[in-house]
Design a protein that fits this description.
276 residues, Diaminopimelate Epimerase, Chain A, domain 1, 4 helices
Length: 276
């Protein structure tokens, strides 16, 4: 991968949104003309490079404060990433790209963000394509799932043994099941812990592994739990993930969902420069 007029390196900030970590780059001036897919696949690899769940690129936009692109660790470009969007909002505020309230464009639509003292909230695009009672046969077992697109596709499966469920194996089988072809799906495993509280573990498409957190997965899990599980109750729903906690607020009517807000902590880990 050759440098194109930026031999001093690509400035980046490593950020974490509730355990989802990202390489975040300011390309508002179009300084870097790079194959971002190849860049992500190379520099997201853990133990031999920077390591991250994905790369976030901020570019100029005529429709919003900026254009937000997300590349997964395997190099694929995602439509949306909730925790990544929260990191992008904090980064934009810190770099004077946006104010405490801002709007940015994604492949899933326009996202609103609010930067607070301790956390960042984003207003998601309206979830769609809700389905329930999806029966899948995997390795001689039948699993009953639900599905919703919360910016990207998410399947959810309820369990009362979250700590012991084989996330990697079962998540991979559901992610690539023919029912969800050709795009595949993210997979969330949910346990209701008390009214208004759920615990979630997520197998992420594109990362192809369990991650410490997933913002769009938290949204999908909270909405479907509140809608289908009386024990969960009405929003807001507090989602507990291995990387930390997220809060989901939304309005619902007749299985349609709107005014969805995802809130949680964002941390700046360090800044650096990558010389290609």
């Amino acid at each position: 991968m050759k440098s194109t007029g930026h031999d001093r390196g690509i400035a980046f900030t490593k950020m974490s949104g509730t355990g989802n970590d990202f390489i975040v780059i300011n390309n508002m001036q179009g300084t870097y003309a790079i194959d971002w897919s190849g860049f992500a696949a190379r520099y997201c690899t853990r133990r031999i490079s920077v390591g991250a769940d994905g790369v976030l690129i901020l570019e100029s936009s005529a429709e919003a404060d900026f254009n937000y692109r997300i590349f997964n660790a395997d190099g694929s470009e995602a439509e949306m990433c909730g925790n990544g969007a929260r990191c992008a909002g904090r980064f934009a505020f810190d770099q004077d790209i946006g104010g405490r309230s801002m709007r940015f464009k994604t492949l899933a639509g326009i996202i609103e963000a609010r930067v607070h003292t301790d956390d960042v909230s984003i207003k998601m695009t309206n979830p769609h394509d809700f389905r329930k009672d999806i029966a899948l046969d995997i390795d001689a077992h039948r699993y009953n799932l639900s599905f919703i697109n919360s910016g990207v596709p998410h399947a959810v499966l309820f369990t009362d043994r979250l700590s012991s469920i084989p996330i990697e194996e079962l998540g991979r089988s559901i992610r690539s099941h023919p029912y969800f072809s050709p795009a595949g799906t993210n997979v969330n495993f949910i346990q209701i812990t008390s009214e208004g509280h759920i615990s979630v573990r997520t197998y992420e498409r594109g990362v192809e592994a369990e991650t410490l957190a997933c913002g769009t997965g938290a949204v999908a899990s909270a909405i479907i739990s509140s809608h289908l599980q009386p024990a969960c109750g009405a929003p807001p729903v507090h989602v507990h993930m291995p990387g930390g906690d997220l809060r989901i607020d939304f309005a619902t009517h007749n299985a349609t969902f709107r005014d969805v807000w995802l809130s949680g902590k964002v941390d700046t880990v360090y800044t650096g420069s990558i010389v290609l």
